[in-house]
Amino acid sequence: MVDVAQLGWEAATVGELDHRLLKAPHVKLRSFNQGPTGDVVFAVDLRINLPNSVFLSSTEMHSFEHFLLAGFQKYLPQNFISIGLMGCQTGFYLVLFNEGRADTILSTYEAILRDVLVATEVPYANIAQCGNYKNHSLELAQGLARRVLDGRTNWRRVV
Ligand SMILES: [Zn+2]
Tell me: the pLDDT tens digits for 66-125? Predict the structure, then answer.
């Protein structure tokens, strides 16, 4: 049995919420699914911007996506499944296998964002590993990382 409160999440914020109430940036457990042998897949929202306010540019989202991909693979190689863009351009979807602890996810996210600040290039920004390899900006990704880190004391404030 998955106990979301024991994992460090506020049970009332799991699932879909009225987007008009959301604060940003925040990190929230979206959903989870436990299989018959006990393994659990967790989906986590990494919300960056307030919904229906300011939208991330395609370049910001793309470079940030590459950093999140590289970072979660580096820090949680046994658990990381995927990172995806929110189509509304306000954040990202993180999918993890057998890792749903809020503290671990938040500290990993913070470590990744700190790595972005000191990076010298966007990971996988080359023709062999990316489908739009010229659409990247290290500077924009670092500006975004700085902004999200500045809001980290409120990451757990979803609404
Ligand atoms: Zn790419």
Answer: 999 999 999 999 999 999 999 999 999 999 999 999 999 999 999 999 999 999 999 999
Ligand 1 center–CA 62 separation, angstroms: 6
Q: How far is the CA of 66 from the centre of ligand 1 (A)?
A: 6
Indicate the pTM of the whole model.
0.96
How many domains is the chain partitioned into structurally? 1
Angle at 46 between CA 137 and CA 4, to 5 degrees: 160
Q: Are the C-beta atoms of residues 67 and 141 closer than 8 Å to each other? A: yes
CATH number, domain at 93? 3.30.1360.80
Which structural domain range is residue 93 located in?
A: 11-152
In this structure, is residue 1 part of a structural domain? no
